[in-house]
Design brief:
InterPro entries: Meiotic_Spo11, Spo11/TopoVI_A, Spo11/TopoVI_A_N, Spo11/TopoVI_A_sf, TOPRIM_Topo6A/Spo11, WH-like_DNA-bd_sf. Its EC number is 5.6.2.2. Keywords: DNA-binding, Isomerase, Magnesium, Metal-binding, Nucleus, Topoisomerase. It catalyses: ATP-dependent breakage, passage and rejoining of double-stranded DNA. This protein is of the alpha/beta class. The protein has two domains: 88 residues, Winged helix-like DNA-binding domain superfamily/Winged helix DNA-binding domain (Arc Repressor Mutant, subunit A), CATH 1.10.10; 216 residues, Dna Topoisomerase Vi A Subunit, Chain: A, domain 2 (3-Layer(aba) Sandwich), CATH 3.40.1360. Helix content is 43%, strand content 15%. The chain is built from 14 helices and 17 strands. Strands 10-7-13-12-14-15 form a six-stranded mixed beta sheet, sandwiched between helices. Strand 2 and strand 3 form a beta hairpin. It is elongated, with a radius of gyration of 24 Å. The two termini are 36 Å apart.
Length: 352
C-alpha cells in the first residue's frame, strides 16, 4: 500500500531533524543509508509484495559533497510530495548540474533515499524519463490535466512518465500492437498503418522495454480490454522481449502483477513465417552460440509448459539454426510488411 503524503513528509523531516540536532551539538551530521550492494539486505514485504531494503546500513559518514547532494534531493522530493507534483530524474539533475556532476549520481541517490525512507520511487514523486513511444487512435489526460492526442500520423508521443496518473482514456482502437524496435515502429508510422487497416494503437519500448512502457501496455489492456499483439524479430532476443511484456522479468518479478499482460499474443515474425513466405536466404542469419544458449534457457522457463505453440516455433528455430529481423520482409517486397504481411495476419488470425 502506498504511504500517505503526510507519512512521507514526516520521514523526510525526521532525517533533517537528526542532522540539525547533530549540527547544534557541533557534531558532524550522520546519514544512514541502507546497503543496496548486497541481495542479503533485501527482503520481500509480505504485506505489499514489494522488495524492501533491510536495516543493514552501508555506513554513516560521507564526504560533504555527497551529503549536500542528498540534502538537495531530499528538499526537491519534499516540495514535490508537498505540492503533489512530479518530476523526472532528469529534471532533478538539471535543478543543479554543478552540484550533482552527473545524471548517474542523481539516479543512485534517489534510489538510496527510496531505500532509506522505505518507500517506492514513485511515492517520492520522482520518475524515470520514458524511452518508449506511442501512436494511433488514443487520447487521454495526464495527471496535471494536459491533453495528449496520439492520432498524428507524422510523429509519435513519448510514453508518459506518470502512467498511473493517466485518466479519461478515449479510443476506438480494435487492437494494440507492441513493436519491438523503433525502426519498425517508425516505418509503420510513416506508412500510416494505424489508419489504413483499422484503428489501432502502436507502442514501442525501443528494444528491452522500460517500466513505463510496460505500465502503459498494462493500462491500455485494463482500460480497453482489446487484443494485444507483439511484433518482434524472429530471434531469441525478440522472443525474450515479448516474454517481458507477457510474463515479466526476473529483475522486476516482485512488481509483476502491475507490469505484465498475460493476454499478449505473438503476431510475428514467426520462425514458421520464414519458411512459409520463403524469405530470401540472403536475409537469414545463422544463430550464434549466444543465440542458442538464450533459446535453450528460454525453453526451460516454466511458463512455456502452457504455450505449446510458442514452444514449437522456438524448437523450429533450434532445428533450422537461422534467425531474421522484421526488416527482412522488405527483401520480398518494399511494402510487404504493411501492405501484405500484417493485414493478412490480422485478417485471418495468424497469431499464437
Amino acid at each position: 500500500a502506498l504511504l500517505c503524503q503526510r507519512e512521507i513528509l514526516s520521514r523526510i523531516e525526521s532525517v533533517i531533524l537528526r542532522i540539525v540536532e547533530s549540527l547544534s551539538k557541533n557534531e558532524a551530521p550522520v546519514l544512514e543509508l541502507p546497503n543496496r550492494s548486497s541481495w542479503s539486505n533485501f527482503f520481500e514485504d509480505s504485506f505489499s509484495g514489494f522488495m524492501q531494503c533491510g536495516d543493514n546500513n552501508a555506513g554513516h559518514f560521507f564526504r560533504s559533497l555527497f551529503k549536500a547532494q542528498i540534502l538537495k534531493i531530499l528538499s526537491v522530493i519534499y516540495r514535490l510530495v508537498q505540492s503533489n507534483s512530479y518530476a523526472t530524474k532528469r529534471d532533478v539533475y538539471y535543478n543543479n548540474t554543478q552540484l550533482f556532476g552527473s545524471q548517474r549520481s542523481v539516479d543512485t541517490i534517489v534510489d538510496d533515499i527510496s531505500c532509506m525512507l522505505k518507500v517506492s520511487r514513485r511515492a517520492l514523486h520522482v520518475m524515470a524519463t520514458s524511452k518508449g513511444l506511442i501512436a494511433g487512435d488514443l487520447c487521454y489526460l495526464e495527471e496535471d490535466g494536459t491533453r495528449i492526442d496520439c492520432r498524428s500520423s507524422s510523429a509519435a508521443v513519448s510514453v508518459s512518465s506518470n502512467v498511473s496518473g493517466i485518466r479519461n482514456i478515449v479510443s476506438s482502437a480494435k487492437f494494440v500492437m507492441i513493436v519491438e524496435k523503433d525502426a519498425t515502429f517508425q516505418r509503420l508510422l510513416n506508412d500510416d498503418f494505424c489508419r489504413k487497416l483499422s484503428p489501432c494503437i502502436m507502442i514501442t519500448g525501443k528494444g528491452v522495454p522500460d517500466v513505463n512502457s510496460r505500465l502503459m501496455v498494462k493500462k491500455l489492456w485494463d482500460t480497453l480490454q482489446i487484443p494485444i499483439f507483439a511484433l518482434v524479430d524472429a530471434d531469441p532476443h525478440g522472443f525474450e522481449i515479448m516474454c517481458i511484456y507477457k510474463y515479466g522479468s526476473v529483475a522486476m518479478s516482485f512488481e509483476a502483477h502491475s507490469l505484465t499482460v498475460p493476454s499478449v499474443m505473438w503476431l510475428g515474425l514467426l520462425p514458421s513465417d520464414l519458411q512459409r513466405l520463403m524469405v530470401p536466404k540472403r536475409s537469414l542469419l545463422p544463430l550464434t552460440r549466444r543465440d542458442e544458449n538464450k533459446l535453450n534457457s528460454l525453453l526451460k522457463r516454466p511458463y512455456f509448459a502452457s504455450q505449446p505453440q510458442w514452444q514449437k516455433e522456438m524448437e523450429l528455430m533450434q532445428q533450422s539454426k537461422v534467425k531474421a529481423e522484421i526488416q527482412s520482409l522488405a527483401d520480398i517486397a518494399p511494402d510487404f510488411l504493411t501492405s501484405i504481411y500484417l493485414p493478412n495476419k490480422l485478417r485471418f488470425g495468424g497469431w499464437l
